[in-house]
Amino acid sequence: FQIVFLGIYKLVVTENKEVNDYNQLVSLLTGIGKSISIPEGGRWGAQDRTNTINATAGTLGPAFVPARTYDPAQIRWITQLENILAQSYTEQAAYDFKQGFTRLDGSGKFDGDSFEKVLKTLVGIANIKKGTKGYVLIGIADKPADAKRVQDLYGAAPRPFERFLITGIDHESVALGKNLDQMFQLITEQIKQSSISDPLRDYVARNVKLVRYYDKSVVVLESQAQADPSHYDGRFFVRKGNNLEEIPSTGYAELFKRFQSGT
Fold first, then answer.
1. Per-residue DSSP letters for 41-76?
2. CB of 140 within 8 A of CB of 95?
3. How far apart are CA 33 and CA 1, in angstroms?
4. pLDDT, tens digit, for every residue of 204-240?
């Protein structure tokens, strides 16, 4: 036990790494005691002890990657993400979830149509009423069929939380030939170049986050009602329950009045 602990300590503390694949780590830990040779009586020299620790760290190393820069906000986001998921039960209109950015048809291509709907949803959340704040979370499946499809295509087992299945976007970055930083930059640029009206577009672009939920990376897109109703390419949308509805021209007066009155 001490050797395994010190091997992990070497990887995490000395080499500043973090677990990249918990399933792989569990697999590597299974039966690892058989490969650790301990002298009779448990006594050994310092060099033998160091060599054994290094060997154990080498065995477990494939499940680790260099750690990202420490950010206390990332730690807090585990709790905050779970709070957002729990809050969505009572305020469904202000929350939406997507399993990812890529198509599930096996092509692994970026799904532009789905992303456009995400942008419209951000507009729809901002138009619920004055003072509304909401989120669209990418990397979370609310349908078991979607999570299963992700696992079948990419071998990425979801992490469950209540009724949600957290798939993350890590496997998608690999499919698109990008690292997570490049993926984050891609999403930010897509938002900046989108047809969302100012100032909501700037707000969303400034507040996009890539957060770590255990071994999964989730994109958090935040929307907030602005001083006036927001639109997408000149079209106004609003969220009602789980549905996104386009507001007809006959409803514009009521929409703007709602923002002026704050009700």
1. GG---HHHHHHHHHHHHHHHGGGEEEPPPP-HHHHH
2. no
3. 8
4. 999 999 998 988 999 999 999 999 999 999 999 999 9
